[in-house]
Amino acid sequence: MHKILYIPGPVEVRKDVLEKMSTPLVGHRTKEFAELFHDVKGKLKQLFYTENPVMVSTSSGSGFMEAAMRNLVGKKVLNCVCGSFSDKWYNIAIRCGKEAEKLEVDWGKAIKPDMIEEKLSTGEFDAICVTHNETSTGVMHHLEEISEVVKNYPDVMFLVDAVSSLGGAKIEVDKLGIDMCITSSQKALALPPGIALASVSEKALERAKQIPGRGYYFDLLELKKMYDKDNTPYTPSVSHLYALKYQLDRMLEEGLENRFKRHERLAEKTRKWGKKLGFELFPETGYESVTVSCFSDTKGMDLSKMKELMGERGFSVDSGYRKLNNKLADAGKPMTFRIAHMGDTTEEDLDTLFGAYEEVFPKVGGA
Ligand SMILES: Cc1ncc(COP(=O)(O)O)c(C=O)c1O
Which of 13, 31, 142, 277 has its CA at a distance of 20 to 30 angstroms from the CA of residue 94? Predict the structure, then answer.
Protein backbone atom coordinates (compact mmCIF):
# COMPACT_ATOMS: atom_id res chain seq x y z
CA MET A 1 0.00 0.00 0.00
CA HIS A 2 1.31 3.46 -0.88
CA LYS A 3 1.36 5.74 2.15
CA ILE A 4 0.46 9.33 1.30
CA LEU A 5 3.38 11.55 2.24
CA TYR A 6 2.81 14.23 4.87
CA ILE A 7 6.43 14.34 5.98
CA PRO A 8 8.19 17.65 5.24
CA GLY A 9 9.81 16.30 2.10
CA PRO A 10 9.73 14.47 -0.06
CA VAL A 11 6.05 15.35 -0.34
CA GLU A 12 3.28 13.57 -2.20
CA VAL A 13 3.57 13.84 -5.98
CA ARG A 14 0.42 13.71 -8.09
CA LYS A 15 0.08 10.74 -10.40
CA ASP A 16 -0.07 12.88 -13.57
CA VAL A 17 3.14 14.66 -12.55
CA LEU A 18 4.86 11.34 -11.79
CA GLU A 19 3.81 10.02 -15.17
CA LYS A 20 5.67 12.86 -16.90
CA MET A 21 8.88 11.33 -15.55
CA SER A 22 8.38 8.42 -17.93
CA THR A 23 8.20 10.57 -21.07
CA PRO A 24 10.45 8.99 -23.75
CA LEU A 25 13.87 10.60 -23.56
CA VAL A 26 15.76 12.90 -25.89
CA GLY A 27 19.51 13.55 -25.81
CA HIS A 28 20.43 16.70 -23.96
CA ARG A 29 22.44 18.09 -26.89
CA THR A 30 19.40 18.17 -29.17
CA LYS A 31 17.15 20.97 -30.40
CA GLU A 32 14.22 19.30 -28.59
CA PHE A 33 16.02 19.52 -25.27
CA ALA A 34 17.05 23.15 -25.84
CA GLU A 35 13.40 24.02 -26.51
CA LEU A 36 12.28 22.27 -23.34
CA PHE A 37 14.98 23.95 -21.26
CA HIS A 38 14.26 27.36 -22.77
CA ASP A 39 10.60 27.02 -21.90
CA VAL A 40 11.40 25.95 -18.32
CA LYS A 41 13.85 28.86 -17.89
CA GLY A 42 11.16 31.44 -18.63
CA LYS A 43 8.67 29.85 -16.24
CA LEU A 44 11.25 29.56 -13.46
CA LYS A 45 11.90 33.30 -13.69
CA GLN A 46 8.22 33.88 -13.01
CA LEU A 47 8.27 31.52 -10.05
CA PHE A 48 11.35 33.18 -8.54
CA TYR A 49 10.18 36.73 -9.39
CA THR A 50 13.51 37.44 -11.02
CA GLU A 51 15.21 38.54 -14.20
CA ASN A 52 18.30 36.60 -13.10
CA PRO A 53 19.04 33.17 -14.54
CA VAL A 54 17.56 30.28 -12.57
CA MET A 55 19.97 27.36 -12.86
CA VAL A 56 18.98 23.71 -12.71
CA SER A 57 21.21 21.11 -11.11
CA THR A 58 20.85 17.36 -11.08
CA SER A 59 21.37 17.09 -7.34
CA SER A 60 19.33 17.79 -4.30
CA GLY A 61 19.28 21.28 -2.78
CA SER A 62 22.42 20.59 -0.73
CA GLY A 63 24.39 20.66 -3.99
CA PHE A 64 23.53 24.29 -4.60
CA MET A 65 24.12 25.08 -0.90
CA GLU A 66 27.64 23.80 -1.45
CA ALA A 67 27.86 25.74 -4.74
CA ALA A 68 27.01 28.96 -2.91
CA MET A 69 29.86 28.41 -0.47
CA ARG A 70 32.43 27.36 -3.08
CA ASN A 71 31.63 30.13 -5.57
CA LEU A 72 30.62 33.10 -3.48
CA VAL A 73 32.50 33.19 -0.18
CA GLY A 74 35.87 34.91 -0.36
CA LYS A 75 36.41 36.42 3.06
CA LYS A 76 34.01 35.01 5.63
CA VAL A 77 30.39 33.88 5.72
CA LEU A 78 27.81 34.61 8.42
CA ASN A 79 25.57 31.56 8.93
CA CYS A 80 22.25 32.35 10.60
CA VAL A 81 21.54 29.18 12.58
CA CYS A 82 18.21 28.35 14.22
CA GLY A 83 17.82 24.63 13.58
CA SER A 84 19.31 21.61 11.89
CA PHE A 85 19.33 22.70 8.23
CA SER A 86 20.80 26.13 8.91
CA ASP A 87 23.43 24.38 11.04
CA LYS A 88 24.13 22.06 8.10
CA TRP A 89 24.85 25.05 5.86
CA TYR A 90 27.45 26.22 8.37
CA ASN A 91 29.03 22.75 8.23
CA ILE A 92 29.03 22.83 4.45
CA ALA A 93 30.91 26.15 4.58
CA ILE A 94 33.52 24.68 6.95
CA ARG A 95 33.94 21.54 4.85
CA CYS A 96 34.47 23.72 1.78
CA GLY A 97 37.37 25.28 3.67
CA LYS A 98 35.64 28.63 4.15
CA GLU A 99 35.88 30.88 7.14
CA ALA A 100 32.43 30.89 8.72
CA GLU A 101 30.75 32.17 11.86
CA LYS A 102 27.45 31.13 13.36
CA LEU A 103 24.84 33.65 14.43
CA GLU A 104 22.79 31.20 16.47
CA VAL A 105 19.55 31.44 18.42
CA ASP A 106 17.75 28.73 20.38
CA TRP A 107 16.16 26.24 18.00
CA GLY A 108 12.53 27.27 17.54
CA LYS A 109 13.39 30.98 17.64
CA ALA A 110 13.97 33.20 14.61
CA ILE A 111 16.95 35.36 13.66
CA LYS A 112 16.05 39.07 13.84
CA PRO A 113 17.28 41.85 11.54
CA ASP A 114 19.02 43.75 14.35
CA MET A 115 21.14 40.68 15.17
CA ILE A 116 22.24 40.56 11.55
CA GLU A 117 22.94 44.30 11.48
CA GLU A 118 25.20 43.95 14.49
CA LYS A 119 27.26 41.23 12.81
CA LEU A 120 27.45 42.71 9.31
CA SER A 121 28.46 46.12 10.64
CA THR A 122 31.78 44.60 11.75
CA GLY A 123 32.77 44.46 8.07
CA GLU A 124 34.15 40.94 8.56
CA PHE A 125 31.71 39.22 6.20
CA ASP A 126 31.28 39.05 2.44
CA ALA A 127 28.34 36.59 2.49
CA ILE A 128 25.34 35.76 4.67
CA CYS A 129 23.31 32.54 4.68
CA VAL A 130 19.67 32.70 5.71
CA THR A 131 17.41 29.66 5.87
CA HIS A 132 14.02 31.07 4.94
CA ASN A 133 12.07 28.12 6.28
CA GLU A 134 13.87 26.06 8.94
CA THR A 135 12.14 22.75 8.27
CA SER A 136 13.37 21.10 11.47
CA THR A 137 11.60 23.60 13.75
CA GLY A 138 8.84 25.06 11.55
CA VAL A 139 10.25 28.59 11.80
CA MET A 140 9.80 30.86 8.79
CA HIS A 141 11.95 33.98 8.71
CA HIS A 142 10.76 37.43 7.72
CA LEU A 143 12.87 37.79 4.60
CA GLU A 144 11.69 41.31 3.77
CA GLU A 145 12.88 42.70 7.10
CA ILE A 146 16.18 40.85 6.80
CA SER A 147 16.68 42.09 3.24
CA GLU A 148 16.31 45.70 4.42
CA VAL A 149 19.44 45.19 6.52
CA VAL A 150 21.44 43.17 4.00
CA LYS A 151 20.75 45.75 1.26
CA ASN A 152 22.92 48.23 3.18
CA TYR A 153 25.90 45.94 2.61
CA PRO A 154 26.30 45.66 -1.17
CA ASP A 155 29.53 43.65 -0.86
CA VAL A 156 27.77 40.95 1.16
CA MET A 157 26.26 38.11 -0.89
CA PHE A 158 22.68 37.49 0.26
CA LEU A 159 22.26 33.69 0.09
CA VAL A 160 18.88 32.16 0.87
CA ASP A 161 17.92 28.54 1.41
CA ALA A 162 14.30 28.42 0.29
CA VAL A 163 14.34 24.63 -0.03
CA SER A 164 11.11 24.05 1.88
CA SER A 165 9.29 27.27 1.05
CA LEU A 166 9.74 28.38 -2.57
CA GLY A 167 6.59 27.60 -4.49
CA GLY A 168 4.54 27.67 -1.28
CA ALA A 169 5.44 31.16 -0.11
CA LYS A 170 6.08 34.24 -2.23
CA ILE A 171 9.77 35.06 -2.49
CA GLU A 172 10.42 38.04 -4.72
CA VAL A 173 14.08 37.42 -5.42
CA ASP A 174 14.89 40.68 -7.24
CA LYS A 175 12.89 42.90 -4.90
CA LEU A 176 14.63 41.34 -1.90
CA GLY A 177 18.05 41.58 -3.55
CA ILE A 178 18.80 37.89 -3.10
CA ASP A 179 22.04 36.87 -4.83
CA MET A 180 21.40 33.15 -4.73
CA CYS A 181 18.03 31.64 -3.85
CA ILE A 182 18.02 27.86 -3.65
CA THR A 183 15.24 25.30 -3.68
CA SER A 184 14.76 21.55 -4.15
CA SER A 185 12.20 19.76 -6.28
CA GLN A 186 10.75 17.54 -3.54
CA LYS A 187 9.17 20.15 -1.27
CA ALA A 188 6.69 22.91 -2.14
CA LEU A 189 7.11 22.22 -5.87
CA ALA A 190 5.74 18.71 -5.30
CA LEU A 191 8.07 16.94 -7.71
CA PRO A 192 10.16 13.83 -7.14
CA PRO A 193 13.52 14.45 -5.44
CA GLY A 194 16.55 14.75 -7.73
CA ILE A 195 16.90 18.30 -9.01
CA ALA A 196 17.64 21.64 -7.40
CA LEU A 197 16.98 25.14 -8.69
CA ALA A 198 18.78 28.37 -7.88
CA SER A 199 18.61 31.94 -9.08
CA VAL A 200 22.01 33.58 -9.41
CA SER A 201 22.47 37.36 -9.60
CA GLU A 202 24.87 39.27 -11.88
CA LYS A 203 26.73 40.34 -8.76
CA ALA A 204 27.12 36.71 -7.72
CA LEU A 205 28.51 35.75 -11.12
CA GLU A 206 31.01 38.62 -10.87
CA ARG A 207 32.02 37.43 -7.40
CA ALA A 208 32.47 33.85 -8.62
CA LYS A 209 35.06 35.08 -11.16
CA GLN A 210 37.24 36.20 -8.23
CA ILE A 211 36.98 32.96 -6.23
CA PRO A 212 39.43 30.12 -6.83
CA GLY A 213 38.59 26.48 -6.16
CA ARG A 214 35.01 26.54 -7.45
CA GLY A 215 35.38 22.94 -8.53
CA TYR A 216 33.63 21.67 -11.65
CA TYR A 217 30.18 20.21 -11.01
CA PHE A 218 28.92 23.26 -9.13
CA ASP A 219 30.93 25.96 -10.89
CA LEU A 220 28.32 28.67 -11.41
CA LEU A 221 30.28 30.11 -14.34
CA GLU A 222 30.20 26.76 -16.18
CA LEU A 223 26.48 26.45 -15.46
CA LYS A 224 25.86 29.98 -16.73
CA LYS A 225 27.87 29.42 -19.92
CA MET A 226 25.67 26.48 -20.86
CA TYR A 227 22.49 28.06 -19.46
CA ASP A 228 22.89 30.80 -22.07
CA LYS A 229 22.81 28.05 -24.71
CA ASP A 230 19.66 26.49 -23.20
CA ASN A 231 21.69 23.62 -21.87
CA THR A 232 23.66 22.25 -18.93
CA PRO A 233 27.41 21.47 -18.71
CA TYR A 234 26.77 17.74 -18.21
CA THR A 235 23.94 15.25 -18.54
CA PRO A 236 20.91 16.50 -16.62
CA SER A 237 17.94 14.49 -15.41
CA VAL A 238 15.88 15.08 -18.53
CA SER A 239 12.99 13.17 -16.94
CA HIS A 240 12.80 15.71 -14.13
CA LEU A 241 12.70 18.53 -16.65
CA TYR A 242 9.63 17.04 -18.31
CA ALA A 243 7.92 16.82 -14.95
CA LEU A 244 9.12 20.30 -13.96
CA LYS A 245 7.73 21.85 -17.13
CA TYR A 246 4.39 20.15 -16.56
CA GLN A 247 4.27 21.14 -12.91
CA LEU A 248 5.25 24.77 -13.67
CA ASP A 249 2.39 24.93 -16.16
CA ARG A 250 0.03 23.60 -13.51
CA MET A 251 1.31 26.12 -10.96
CA LEU A 252 0.93 29.05 -13.34
CA GLU A 253 -2.54 27.83 -14.22
CA GLU A 254 -3.51 27.74 -10.54
CA GLY A 255 -1.98 31.22 -10.29
CA LEU A 256 1.04 31.82 -8.06
CA GLU A 257 -0.87 34.16 -5.77
CA ASN A 258 -3.65 31.59 -5.41
CA ARG A 259 -1.09 28.94 -4.65
CA PHE A 260 0.47 31.05 -1.88
CA LYS A 261 -2.99 31.82 -0.46
CA ARG A 262 -3.82 28.10 -0.47
CA HIS A 263 -0.65 27.42 1.51
CA GLU A 264 -1.64 30.11 4.03
CA ARG A 265 -5.10 28.56 4.41
CA LEU A 266 -3.63 25.10 4.90
CA ALA A 267 -1.22 26.41 7.54
CA GLU A 268 -3.98 28.30 9.35
CA LYS A 269 -6.23 25.24 9.29
CA THR A 270 -3.47 22.99 10.65
CA ARG A 271 -2.52 25.39 13.44
CA LYS A 272 -6.17 25.83 14.52
CA TRP A 273 -6.78 22.09 14.50
CA GLY A 274 -3.65 21.30 16.52
CA LYS A 275 -4.39 23.99 19.09
CA LYS A 276 -8.00 22.79 19.40
CA LEU A 277 -6.64 19.35 20.31
CA GLY A 278 -4.40 20.90 22.98
CA PHE A 279 -1.01 21.01 21.26
CA GLU A 280 1.17 24.10 21.18
CA LEU A 281 3.06 25.46 18.21
CA PHE A 282 6.80 25.06 18.67
CA PRO A 283 8.06 28.11 16.71
CA GLU A 284 8.30 31.54 18.21
CA THR A 285 4.96 33.34 17.77
CA GLY A 286 4.82 35.31 14.55
CA TYR A 287 7.36 33.10 12.78
CA GLU A 288 5.25 30.00 12.08
CA SER A 289 5.91 28.41 8.71
CA VAL A 290 3.23 28.31 6.00
CA THR A 291 4.52 25.01 4.59
CA VAL A 292 5.13 22.89 7.70
CA SER A 293 3.64 23.08 11.19
CA CYS A 294 5.75 21.94 14.10
CA PHE A 295 3.82 21.11 17.27
CA SER A 296 5.13 20.63 20.79
CA ASP A 297 3.83 17.31 22.01
CA THR A 298 2.54 18.73 25.27
CA LYS A 299 0.80 15.42 26.03
CA GLY A 300 3.95 13.31 25.95
CA MET A 301 2.60 10.85 23.38
CA ASP A 302 4.40 7.80 22.04
CA LEU A 303 5.43 9.47 18.79
CA SER A 304 6.93 6.42 17.11
CA LYS A 305 3.74 4.47 17.82
CA MET A 306 1.77 7.39 16.37
CA LYS A 307 3.83 7.21 13.21
CA GLU A 308 3.30 3.45 13.00
CA LEU A 309 -0.48 3.66 13.48
CA MET A 310 -0.76 6.49 10.96
CA GLY A 311 1.22 4.31 8.57
CA GLU A 312 -1.33 1.52 9.00
CA ARG A 313 -3.99 4.02 7.99
CA GLY A 314 -2.13 4.92 4.80
CA PHE A 315 -0.24 8.04 5.86
CA SER A 316 3.49 8.60 6.11
CA VAL A 317 3.87 11.16 8.89
CA ASP A 318 6.65 12.71 10.92
CA SER A 319 7.47 11.97 14.53
CA GLY A 320 9.74 14.98 14.95
CA TYR A 321 13.18 15.92 13.74
CA ARG A 322 15.48 13.56 15.64
CA LYS A 323 18.29 16.02 16.39
CA LEU A 324 15.80 18.58 17.70
CA ASN A 325 13.85 16.05 19.75
CA ASN A 326 17.05 14.71 21.30
CA LYS A 327 18.00 18.25 22.32
CA LEU A 328 14.53 18.86 23.80
CA ALA A 329 14.51 15.52 25.64
CA ASP A 330 17.93 16.32 27.16
CA ALA A 331 16.51 19.64 28.39
CA GLY A 332 13.42 17.91 29.84
CA LYS A 333 11.14 19.70 27.37
CA PRO A 334 8.28 18.24 25.29
CA MET A 335 9.29 16.71 21.97
CA THR A 336 7.84 17.82 18.65
CA PHE A 337 6.10 16.41 15.60
CA ARG A 338 5.56 18.08 12.25
CA ILE A 339 2.83 18.08 9.64
CA ALA A 340 3.75 19.19 6.12
CA HIS A 341 1.12 21.10 4.16
CA MET A 342 2.97 22.05 1.03
CA GLY A 343 2.90 21.35 -2.67
CA ASP A 344 -0.41 20.18 -4.07
CA THR A 345 -2.16 19.38 -0.76
CA THR A 346 -5.78 20.53 -0.51
CA GLU A 347 -8.02 21.38 2.43
CA GLU A 348 -9.97 18.15 1.82
CA ASP A 349 -6.72 16.17 1.99
CA LEU A 350 -6.04 17.67 5.40
CA ASP A 351 -9.55 16.83 6.65
CA THR A 352 -8.88 13.17 5.84
CA LEU A 353 -5.44 13.30 7.45
CA PHE A 354 -6.74 14.99 10.61
CA GLY A 355 -9.49 12.37 10.87
CA ALA A 356 -6.85 9.64 10.97
CA TYR A 357 -4.76 11.51 13.56
CA GLU A 358 -7.83 11.89 15.76
CA GLU A 359 -8.37 8.13 15.64
CA VAL A 360 -4.72 7.51 16.51
CA PHE A 361 -4.06 10.11 19.21
CA PRO A 362 -6.16 8.41 21.96
CA LYS A 363 -4.24 5.17 21.32
CA VAL A 364 -0.83 6.77 21.89
CA GLY A 365 -1.46 8.84 25.01
CA GLY A 366 -2.86 11.90 23.29
CA ALA A 367 -6.50 11.74 24.33
C1 LIG B 1 15.48 23.97 4.94
C2 LIG B 1 16.22 22.89 4.24
N3 LIG B 1 17.41 23.15 3.72
C4 LIG B 1 18.12 22.23 3.07
C5 LIG B 1 17.66 20.94 2.93
C6 LIG B 1 18.47 19.94 2.18
O7 LIG B 1 17.86 19.78 0.95
P8 LIG B 1 18.11 18.48 0.06
O9 LIG B 1 17.68 17.31 0.86
O10 LIG B 1 17.27 18.74 -1.16
O11 LIG B 1 19.57 18.45 -0.22
C12 LIG B 1 16.42 20.60 3.46
C13 LIG B 1 15.91 19.23 3.35
O14 LIG B 1 15.00 18.81 4.00
C15 LIG B 1 15.68 21.60 4.12
O16 LIG B 1 14.48 21.32 4.63
Answer: 142
- Give the predicted TM-score (pTM) of the model: 0.98
Pairing outcome for strands 336-340 and 100-104: unpaired
Residue 19 located in a structural domain: no
pLDDT tens-digit series, residues 206-246 = 999 999 999 999 999 999 999 999 999 999 999 999 999 99
Q: What is the DSSP string of 118-137?
A: HHHTTS--SEEEEESEETTT
For residue 344, being part of any structural domain is answered with yes
Distance, in Å, from the CA atom of 296 to the CA atom of 196, rounded to the nearest integer, reads 31
**Cβ of 345 below 6 Å from ligand 1:** no
Which range of residues forms the domain containing residue 318?
A: 4-9+255-364
Residue 16 belongs to some domain of the structure: no
Q: What is the pLDDT of residue 367?
A: 75
Q: Distance (Å, rounded) from C-alpha 127 to C-alpha 285? A: 28
| Domain identity same for 176 and 40 | yes
Point out the domain boundary residue: 253, 277, 295. 253
At residue 109, what are phi and psi to the nearest 5 degrees?
A: -95, 170
**The domain boundary residue, chosen from 253, 287, 314:** 253
- CA of 251 from ligand 1 middle (Å) equals 21
Ligand 1 proximity of 164 Cβ (cutoff 6 Å): yes
Could you identify the atom of ligand 1 that is nearest to the CA of residue 186?
10
Longest dimension (CA), the chain: 60
CATH for 78: 3.40.640.10
Q: Quick check: CB of 58 below 6 Å from ligand 1? A: no
